[in-house]
Design brief:
The structure holds 2 protein chains of 2 kinds. Chain A is mostly helical. Chain A contains 12 helices and 2 strands. Chain A folds into 3 domains: 2-32 and 228-258, no CATH class; 37-131, Orthogonal Bundle (Cytochrome Bc1 Complex, Chain D, domain 2); 132-222, Orthogonal Bundle (Cytochrome Bc1 Complex, Chain D, domain 2). Chain A starts with a helix and ends with a helix. By secondary structure, chain B is of the alpha+beta class. Chain B has helices at 22-26, 47-50, 52-82, 99-125, 143-160, 166-178, 181-185, 202-207, 244-251, 255-260, and strands at residues 4-6, 29-30, 88-91, 95-98, 132-134, 136-137, 217-219, 236-241, 262-266, 285-289, 301-303, 308-310, 317-319, 325-328, 337-338, 340-342, 348-350. In chain B, helix 3 (52-82) packs antiparallel against helix 4 (99-125). The chains are: A mainly alpha, B alpha+beta. The interface between A and B is large, with 40 and 51 residues.
Chain lengths: 262, 366
């Protein structure tokens, strides 16, 4: 113990402490931002609509208005469709925890049943995209290569070619797709959540959407042989890591070599 | 070793080498700023110098490091032979990684590191650590050397005949003066006359795209013609002229595609505050070039609520609801708009070519 106290002013100790702290913060963040999505069940009968309306008035109406007509705090929900409700609520983006540039994904506040009830209520207000069927979400026969082409043309500009996500203006961002489910991807393309444009079935057909989903799933399963994917941002992130991280380690080693022995 | 004098012998430096010129030795030793004080550093012995136990501990440490290195080499070979290359393993903070790659990197890295670390520990703790002064002579030349250099210069001038052969001297100077001209001439490419005899200027190249009047618009990637109802409000489509593939095959390059790439966005017609021409939209569908007017990155980062188009390269931002004007960033020009309408079959077409050059800025246009 005495030896420890004596060595605490050693420059290496400071470097090591910094390294441990940085790794700790990064690790906690990585664990905290991983959320598990779930499957959906669609209901459209009247009881579901009534129950959905109750949930809506409780949890959503303060921003979106008592009649879903929208307020200064939130857009109208008439005509957004069940798919938009399922996407926003099942990924925890809605209800928002606090006003901000963008609603971040977080653990969902509602069960799948409650979400489908709210979706049924919103769908009853006006025609909009429905929650995709299991058939639409079946990407097993989709062409991954074709999906890659379409992804690079339509999605990569914001979500990165490898789906890592990226920054937009004024604090907004395109989220990473590394934990997105096929249903979330499909619904996002269909409804254009937040500032994402809508990619309707007219320009990206159901087959095109399945191909894109197949490509994103392929990206999610793609191994990272080196371990650290560094956000899959490519050479910039890797170069920064080498210069900032590895060079710092080398400087630490050089300092150790240079310290006078006791 | 005569320049390195240990503390014990610092007071009597040994200058006994015969190959050092005599007047070199006569000069005073450098002792100014940057030099080490010769004899006034108190020597602090290390623990391993005084305590034989500590010395043996260090000896064991160094040997242990070398042994670990050997072990790592054995493990490296074992990992290479035994681990399935497809196997994955979860490493905290790293995630799922290829087990074999991870093991090979770790064992080889540690194997090399332990040899180095052992050597350094050995040098730091066991090898002598007495303070050493390196004595240096002053850098200025002696008067004798100055005179000799001047003599050599004069002799060179005399022998080469540089002063004597006037015509050689003058032509050499002229040749050296002209030599950089080719490098300057190459800069001509930065400047192009309007009706240049050097081929089309950037203005001409970027003013002509594959878009012509009534050219159908097709999606990029799937190359299908578009109807207005295919694009919902808030929608974004990357699009090209219908004949782009033919042009590409003819020209064997992607220049036409690079210039003709557009994006179509749709907003409520009353959200459009300004356009580059009256009625250039079709029921709220607007067509803009996809190529940033700054340095020409393809851009489609479109925020459908703000109608802002953001370039990922240098963050130039264009407001597509306001005639594609620049709202932020280094771009100096607005995004060129393509006037669109529908043909008799109801497909979206270009009503006219681009009215201004597309793509990155160039000399004649900021």
């Amino acid at each position: 113990m005495k030896g420890l106290v004596a060595r605490r002013r050693n420059p290496i100790v400071a470097s090591l402490l910094l390294l441990v702290a940085l790794l700790g913060v990064g690790g906690v963040y990585a664990v905290a931002t991983t959320a598990a999505p779930a499957e959906a069940v669609a209901t459209s009968d009247q009881t579901a609509i009534d129950e959905g309306k109750r949930l809506y008035l409780e949890g959503c109406s303060s921003c979106h208005g008592l009649d879903s007509q929208g307020t200064s705090n939130g857009p109208t929900l008439i005509g957004v469709g069940a798919a938009a409700v399922h996407f926003q609520v099942s990924t925890g983006r809605m209800p928002m925890a606090a006003p901000g540039a963008q609603a971040p994904a977080k653990p969902a506040d509602y069960t799948e049943e409650e979400i489908s009830q709210m979706a049924a209520y919103i769908a009853s207000l006006g025609p909009g995209p429905a929650i995709p069927t299991a058939e639409q979400l079946d990407y097993s026969s989709a062409d991954v290569a074709e999906g890659g082409v379409l992804f690079r043309i339509n999605c990569a500009q914001c979500h990165q070619a490898a789906g890592g996500g990226g920054a937009l203006t004024d604090g907004k961002h395109a989220p990473s797709l590394m934990s997105a489910t096929p249903q979330e991807i499909y619904e996002a393309m269909l409804t254009g959540p937040q500032n994402m444009p809508v990619f309707g079935d007219g320009t990206l057909t159901v087959e095109d959407k399945q191909a894109i989903i197949a490509y994103v799933m392929d990206l999610q399963e793609a191994p990272s042989p080196g371990g650290l994917s560094l956000g899959r941002l490519g050479p910039v992130a890797e170069g920064l890591f080498l210069w900032a991280g590895v060079m710092a380690a080398f400087v630490g080693l050089a300092v150790w070599i240079g310290i006078r022995a006791r | 070793m005569s320049d390195l004098t240990t503390r014990d012998s610092a007071s009597t430096p040994d200058h006994g080498h015969g190959d050092v010129p005599a007047d070199d030795l006569a000069r005073p030793l450098y002792r100014g700023p940057g030099g080490l004080p010769a004899a006034d550093v108190p020597h602090r012995p290390r623990r391993s110098d005084i305590d034989p136990k500590a010395a043996r501990r260090v000896e064991r440490q160094v040997a242990a490091l070398f042994l670990v290195s050997m072990l790592m080499v054995v493990l490296f070979v074992a990992a290479y032979v035994a681990i399935d290359p497809q196997a994955e393993i979860y490493i905290p903070l790293f995630g799922e990684v290829g087990f074999q790659n991870f093991a090979l990197g770790l064992t080889f890295g540690l194997g090399v590191f332990c040899i180095g670390a052992g050597a350094i520990q050995w040098a730091k703790k066991l090898m002598p650590d007495v303070e050493v002064v390196q004595e240096r002579h002053s850098l200025a030349s002696t008067p004798h050397e100055d005179v000799e250099a001047a003599e050599q210069y004069e002799r060179g001038k005399e022998e080469s005949g540089f002063a004597q052969y006037k015509i050689i001297r003058r032509t050499l100077i002229a040749a050296l003066a002209l030599f950089p001209i080719p490098l300057v001439v190459l800069l001509r490419d930065l400047w192009t006359p309007k009706n240049g005899s050097f081929g089309p200027s950037p203005v001409e190249l970027l003013s002509e795209t594959a878009w012509t009047t009534d050219m159908p618009i097709v999606t990029d990637g799937t190359y299908v013609k578009l109807r207005p109802e295919d694009i919902p409000v808030g929608g974004l489509v990357s699009a090209l002229p219908e004949n782009i593939m033919e042009i590409q095959e003819e020209e064997h390059n992607l220049n036409a595609r690079g210039k003709a790439a557009i994006i179509l966005v749709r907003m409520e017609p009353d959200e459009i505050r300004a356009q580059q021409g009256d009625g250039w939209d079709y029921q709220g569908i607007l067509a803009y070039s996809k190529i940033c007017t700054h340095v020409g990155c393809p851009i489609a980062l479109y925020e459908h609520r703000t109608h802002h188009l953001l370039c990922p390269c240098h963050q130039s931002t264009f407001d597509l609801a306001d005639a594609g004007n620049v709202v932020f960033g280094p771009a100096a020009r607005r995004m060129p708009q393509l006037p669109i309408g529908v043909d008799e079959e109801g497909f979206l077409v270009a009503k006219a070519p681009f009215a201004e050059p597309v793509g990155p800025s160039f000399w004649e246009r900021g």
